Amino acid sequence: MFNDQSAENKVIVFGTVRKCIDLLASFRNISSRIAYIVNTGEDASDPFFSNYTIMPLSSYRYTSGDRIVLMKAYPNSFLCDTGIPAEAVIPLHLWLAGLLRDPIVVFQPWRVRIDICTLCQLRCRDCHMRDPGEATMGYGYIPAETFKNFIDDNPFILSIEISNNGEPLIHPQLHEMITYAYEHHVEISIWNGTNFNDVSDEVLEDLVRYQVRLLNIALDGACQKTYEVYRRNGNFNKVIHNIRKINQLKDKYHSEYPHMTWQFVMMKHNYHEMDMARQMAAELGMTIQFRDSWNADERAAVAALSADRKQAKLLPDADHNTFQTYCSDLLFHPQINWDGRLLGCCQIYKSDWNMNAFDSGFLTVVNSDTYRKTLASILEISPVTADIPCRTCRHKPKTAKEVLAVINS
Ligand code: SF4
Prior knowledge:
Structural class: alpha/beta
Mean pLDDT: 92
Strand content: 5-15%
CATH class of the largest domain: Alpha Beta
Number of helices: 15
Number of strands: 14
Bound molecules: iron/sulfur cluster
Distance between the termini: 23 Å
């Protein structure tokens, strides 16, 4: 375990990759734990780095006692070329865990997920929210005033993901929230997903005018007959119509946003339409992502179909997740329920952390002993002791490779 973070024992960080900014910006007072950053060849012009001394790699000479953190996986030859002995390198996940156990450092994520609305107009077949008694976060939506207060109270938050367990675009005060976020330089994204069936013309325009970054649109099929098997009450043509409207508005406003992704959950009834969906997505200017179903029977059926038809090679590697990196939510975008209850990650829907981010304050809950120790334990691949859902969760990383996937997701 690495938790010796005394000021005189600063580390040298190698790398100015985007991930470096993402991670370092999530901790306040962290500069007191870093001697300097070595630029290994990436662009270090981001203003973020003005707070640090940046040394070119060519100027670095290893000195006994240097303690190094590598921000990305460099080739084996890298250590030889730089003269750094392997034992001088502190694994990134252990260094982050040490920061979380360091009382001087404040954990301050600059992204967050607020599940703004758990209501939905569809009845998707396997959705835990449509199964009475399954999920405990309740049905409702965050009042616009609360959302705006959250932005005011947490000026370091730069990005809010607003979807997860419901349909965000039916929130009745969406216009007010999207415009407020835009005016306060907070990026909005709908990354976990929207069914995109019912969107008013005003909201469609808002999504483009106010630069919502991403719309991940759930479309598990390439025609109504297939689509409605899972997305019950859904209307395929309405979704396609809304996508076309977004494209028209992007032309009108000369906007690259929102990016749109087509999320296609593979099931036995839609497997034959994957190619058609791929073509349609390309025509609509969307990226398509094929995802495994949450339903184990469906996963098994698709695996069999894939093998039988020898179509596996039709699925680029990038389409398939082999390890689910849900724990990254704790590190990069802690999840808050619409009523303020801290959920932590998107996998927590049957209980919560017994903390409320709206009542107690966001920074207070993510800097609570429970939160920081739990996240540190996950990064260290050590048991979670707090009585919270993570303790028994099967998605915790079990190897260094998996924990690095969490950090790099
Ligand atoms: S251990 Fe499970 S519940 Fe906890 S953050 Fe990871 S995925 Fe979520």
